[in-house]
Design a protein that fits this description.
It is a single chain. The protein is of the alpha/beta class. The protein is 44% helix and 15% strand. The protein contains twelve helices and eight strands. The protein has an eight-stranded parallel barrel, surrounded by six helices. Strand 7, helix 11 and strand 8 form a beta-alpha-beta unit. Helix 1 packs parallel to helix 12. It binds phosphoenolpyruvate. The site of phosphoenolpyruvate has 13 residues, from strand 8.
Length: 251
């Protein structure tokens, strides 16, 4: 059985006070979410400690949105995996397309980040996904395949077994354009297939692969019903407790 996951990426949104309020609303609404759906929230770094207190003792897990590619030292402005683990994070998103696009995140850096996350007990939520021009050129399998191979396949089987994958087509992120369930299932099945080729069928059957990109209450049910989609990484709709809970409930 694969873990069902609904994770909320708050990006650079909300003040600390707003984030704390959002976390409180999620804790209050948690009873409506099926017990087998793992809820994760990824607030900005500044919100992690106060949000950790609010969700403490609840079934909501805390994630960061990134971590440093070095363990410690003279790296001004960076936040290490150990620091995140120390304030209660159990996950970190890594390789989000916004980090790849705006902050030069490379596969080499991502391998380092994933290893540091794992060494500190954090489960990475590793993001992959093609750009619009790559899909239009029919290169989405090639692009996503390379992203998976350049990072996941550089890890040992034990390391890779702790990674959650998020397929997020860049053209669907924040655009309101969602991949159809057929488009999403097709590439999720492809990702699972290449993972099976590298680590074996049994291993691939256990990997959770989330869909991300304009997922909302109105389309979540259909996406989550696909055999190779194991939940969602939610951006915009994670900023409203009612929408995020509705997405989780629709599973
Ligand atoms: C994301 O950026 O991870 C994301 C899925 O965003 P949105 O849901 O807003 O498209």
């Amino acid at each position: 059985m694969r873990r069902k996951i609904v994770a909320g990426n708050w990006k650079m949104n909300t003040t600390v006070a707003e984030g704390v309020q959002l976390a409180k609303e999620l804790v209050e609404g948690l009873a409506e979410v099926p017990a087998d759906v793992n809820l994760i929230i990824a607030p900005p770094f500044t919100h992690l400690a106060p949000v950790a207190e609010i969700i403490s003792g609840s079934a909501i897990a805390l994630s960061a949105q990134n971590c440093a590619d070095e363990p410690k030292g003279a790296f001004t402005g960076e936040v290490s995996a150990a620091m995140l683990a120390g304030i209660g994070c159990t996950y970190t998103i890594l390789g989000h397309s916004e980090r790849r696009q705006y902050y030069g995140e490379t596969s080499e850096k991502l391998v380092k980040k994933i290893r540091l996350a794992l060494e500190n007990g954090l489960s990475p939520i590793f993001c992959v996904g093609e750009k619009l021009e790559e899909r239009n050129a029919g290169r989405h399998f090639e692009v996503v395949g390379a992203q998976v191979a350049d990072v996941l396949f550089q890890l040992s089987e034990l390391e890779a077994s702790k990674v959650v994958i998020a397929y997020e087509p860049v053209w669907a992120i924040g655009t309101g354009v969602t991949a159809t369930s057929a488009q999403a299932e097709e590439i999720h099945a492809f990702i699972r297939g290449i993972i099976a080729g590298q680590f074996g069928e049994e291993f691939a059957e256990r990997v959770s692969i989330l869909y991300g990109g304009s997922c909302k209450p109105s389309n979540a049910k259909e996406l989550f019903a696909c055999p190779d989609i194991d939940g969602g990484l939610i951006g915009g709709a994670a900023l409203k407790a009612a929408d995020f809970l509705a997405i989780a409930k629709s599973y």
